[in-house]
TrEMBL record:
Keywords: Hydrolase, Metal-binding, Signal, Zinc. The keyword Metal-binding applies. This is Beta-lactamase-like protein. Belongs to the metallo-beta-lactamase superfamily. CDD domains: metallo-hydrolase-like_MBL-fold (cd07730). Residues 1-18 form the signal peptide. InterPro entries: MBL_superfamily_lactonases, Metallo-B-lactamas, RibonucZ/Hydroxyglut_hydro. GO terms for molecular function: hydrolase activity; metal ion binding. SMART domains: Lactamase_B. Residues 66-262 form the Metallo-beta-lactamase domain. The keyword Lipoprotein does not apply.
Length: 378
């Protein structure tokens, strides 16, 4: 099974860290404010098995993925939007993308609004947004850039394919995404930092916000490290994974965040031993504590939305070191396990550590009552 080749690479590249300083992150008192939006819930009607994650168990194919975007505000009042999510008028995507919606392959919740609508309704003028940063150029992250004034700059990874429709037949981006605005490409070959074996660029030059090179999922894919207090961070992980079971469990994670006793007990019968195993598992009784590698992996089937599953797996294993560390809260773009727990705009994520948000949610994916639970057949 090809999934296992990815898993082998993922498991053996991790390192152990104790605090944020051990990652090589410089000391700084500069911080940013991070606010989350769930732009829309998106469902792959025929299931995500061929495109996102594996294994997909019988009856678990149709999953409603959230679509998070983030407003990052620097103390100098610079405002950044990290990802735009899906555009509301899906029929106005380039034909190669719009066809997915008109054919019913992907559906969105009724009455969905775009990120620009959510910002405006929240009292954030689009003219106040200095930059939009695409973590990568998949359709569910690029939104509708034409809604922003020309003063809003667009920031993308240097490997992003900027071909546009109609100039290029089959292109997924539109000419209006780039028209009449400054577009900056981030070149990680010029990065002056390395955190946890990931190249990073100090975006503001004061240690408050770093762009991080996490290749593999899609050309130009990057993530971000936002310092929300002098000693704690929100890691915006983009599409490094789509379900928390791709990230967890791992030995260092289990050491710092042991599975709650009630979920250990529940997992014995909740998690299918026909599909998952661990050293202390017996037939019909799964032992989550002795599981040392993630329960799921990114799809590497021919129709996978992950461009390079092996490289993506290595990036994910590096991000896993942040996930295991108490100084970092990792939030990716489509983590369904967090949908009912995240404090959304106008609240901030800055107090995640004192509110115990992380420790209260990291095991949600093994909770049968959480919609992100995909570990047994229906």
């Amino acid at each position: 099974m090809r999934f296992l080749s990815t898993l082998a690479v993922v498991f053996f590249v991790g390192e152990t860290y104790a605090t944020y300083r051990d990652f090589g992150i410089p000391v700084s008192s500069a911080t940013v404010q991070v606010q989350a939006f769930n732009v829309v819930n998106v469902t792959f009607v025929n299931g995500p098995d061929a495109s996102l994650i594996g294994p997909v168990l019988p009856g678990r194919g149709s999953v409603p993925f959230p679509n998070y975007a983030f407003l990052v505000t620097h103390k100098n009042n610079t405002r950044i939007v990290w990802d735009l999510g899906l555009r509301a008028d899906t029929a106005n995507y380039a034909p190669s993308i719009a066809g997915l919606f008109t054919a019913g392959i992907i559906t969105v919740q009724p009455g969905a609004k775009g990120m620009t609508d959510l910002l405006t309704q929240g009292g954030v003028p689009l003219s106040s947004i200095n930059q939009v940063i695409w973590s990568h150029a998949h359709f569910d992250h690029v939104g509708d850039m034409s809604k922003f004034p020309s003063t809003t700059q667009l920031v993308i990874g240097s490997e992003t394919n900027t071909a546009t429709f109609p100039q290029t037949a089959g292109a997924s981006l539109l000419a209006s995404d780039f028209a009449n605005r400054t577009v900056t490409k981030i070149d990680f070959s010029k990065a002056n930092h390395t955190f946890g074996n990931l190249k990073a660029i100090d975006y503001f030059g004061d240690g408050s916000f770093y762009l991080v090179d996490t290749p593999g999922h899609f050309p130009g894919h990057m993530s971000a490290l936002a310092r929300v207090t002098p000693t704690s961070f929100v890691y915006l992980g983009s599409d490094t994974y789509h379900n928390a079971a791709e990230m967890r469990p791992r030995p260092e994670f289990q050491k710092n965040y042991p599975c709650p006793a009630h979920l250990v007990a529940e997992a014995k019968t909740a998690i299918s031993t026909d599909f998952f195993w661990s050293p202390k598992t017996t037939d019909g009784a799964f032992d989550v504590v002795s599981r040392a590698d993630p329960l799921m992996v990114a799809s590497d089937l021919p129709t996978s939305l992950t461009a390079d599953p092996i490289t993506a797996g290595i990036s994910l294993a590096k991000v896993a070191a942040f996930d295991a560390d108490p100084d970092f809260f990792v939030v990716v773009a489509h983590d369904l396990s967090l949908r009912s727990s995240l404090p959304y705009f106008p609240k901030t994520l800055n107090s995640w550590q004192t509110s115990k948000l992380k420790q209260n949610t990291v095991w949600n994916f093994v909770d049968q009552t959480n919609p992100a639970f995909l570990l047994s057949p229906l």
